[in-house]
Amino acid sequence: MTSTMMPPRATARPGRGGFGRQLHAEWTKFRTVQGWVWSAVGALLTICLVGLLATAASNTSDPDGSSALPVGPGGEAVNDSFTFVHQQLRGDGTLTVSVSSLAGVVTTSPTDSKAGLAPWAKAGIIVKDGLDQGSAYAAMMVTGAHGVRMQYDYTHDTAGTTGTVSHRTPRWLRLKRSGDTLTGYESSDGAHWTEVGHADLTGLSATPQVGLFVTSPSVEDGTGTGTGFAPAVATGTFDQVLLGGGWTNGSWRTGQVGGDAGTSGSYSQHTKGGATPSGSGFAITGAGDIAPVVGGPAGSGVRTIENFLVGAFAGLIVMVVVGAGYITVEYRRGMIGVTLAASPRRGRVLVAKALVVGSVAFTIGVAAAAVMVPLGGQRSESNGFPVLTVPTATELRVIVGTGLLLAVASVFALAVGTILRRSAVAITVVVVGMVLPYLLAAASLLPDGAAEWLLRVTPAAGFAIQQSVERYDQVVTVYAPSSGYFPLAPWAGFAVLCAYAAAVFAAAMVLLRRRDV
Question: Would you tell me how many other CB atoms lie within 10 Å of the CB of residue 440?
Fold first, then answer.
């Protein structure tokens, strides 16, 4: 007698299907509770409405928005104002100068001025792709207090020799063009040269503007009411000007790049920019800056992406309420026992809830930011406020980061709610730990040191993901939380929030598995 052994019938893995069903059940639960759905919609509307209110004011000093900021090659808003002695030169060659002095004047009132030099006052040589503001460039320069520098395309800065210049200790500078590559050199005697750096300016014109420049940003000035900035100008003396390689001497022209170059702000009647021949060189006076625009007092009068998303903290509070209530309401109504009976693997239940509420919060945050960033910029410009342009990658990071911020905060609240089992207490803990430090720091209610400390060690560090303004060593401003600057980099600050959320979520899973419902 022969028997046939049939293989056992394959069964579906319960893990995947089980979690899929659990996730679907939690999503169904969320969308069928109108209070949660309308709260999520309310979070989106709150972010947008608060952002619209923040952009409602008009700039009475520039009602038509004529002071729009130029944009550099990298997509960032820039300052590009200086006195320029220049000529158009074709092909490759070198420009060499000696700088024997750099002095300045600070104007403290409409009637008073004093000798003074901004630390980042600049006098040097530049190869610039046209006279339009924001065009690509490479420059070698001496500065008021930071020695020799090579800078290019506004955001790049390379240090050379330290120290100041004088008639006894002049500094020789040289720029060499070879195709799209500019190489900067310095020398103390004009005979022995040291390379400082090089810049690759892809697409540089065959006939760029080449010459000498001087510019000076405002000087940081402490007052009885805080830190201010006094307008300043600088004068550089160039003793010799030599062209080499394929460049030969032509006629030099003096001009101003940028309408406000060569004057010291509102006190411009005291100091004017310009150039006069001095021996075989020039004495050039100028004001302004060649640098990225930043926030704080140095960038007063401009708006940033963060201004349009000021309502994110309010929307976050709404989503914290939703996240905490998504679990505590089941404890309050005695439904948690039914949920866990249907899904005995308790950790899976909490993960499913986290995915649902986190996904909803992420969608709300991204949608609100995607609407407010372009809309806020349009409203600000129509009301006369220039908007601080940032690279596309930064803009996308802020938009996606707003969604991530709301998502992690919601999961954080869900985990706290799981541990504490009461909505009011859980919401209070999250708001006090995350939102309150952010508000205290941003509203200048704490000293800068204390505010920075809070934004390093509390979950409020996560708000750094929304920062679009960058910190540049070569630009002076007040880099403080009240000016939009976080002490941690955007992703580093967000990682702090994620660490808090992960730790609390892990504790919530352990407690949910071990204790009775």
Answer: 17
Q: What is the reported pLDDT for 388?
A: 86
Token pair listed for 12: 């579906």
Query: Does residue 206 have a pLDDT over 80?
Result: yes
- pTM > 0.70: yes or no: yes
Q: Which residues contact 356 (CB under 8 A, 6 or more apart)?
A: 23, 26, 27, 30, 326
Q: What are phi and psi of 450, to 5 degrees?
A: -65, -40
pLDDT at 268 over 60: no
SS3 of the chain: helix, strand, coil, percent, to 5: 40, 25, 35
- Token duo for residue 162: 């330290």
Contact predicate 77/389, CB 8 Å: yes
Residues 6 or more apart whose Cβ sits within 8 Å of residue 232: 104, 105, 106, 107, 116, 117, 118, 121, 216, 217, 218, 219, 264, 287
Q: Give the single-character DSSP code of 434.
A: I
And the tokens for 343? 């899904």
Amino acid at position 73, single letter: P
**pLDDT 10s digits, 40-63:** 999 999 999 999 998 888 766 555
Phi then psi dihedrals of residue 117, to 5 deg: -135, 125
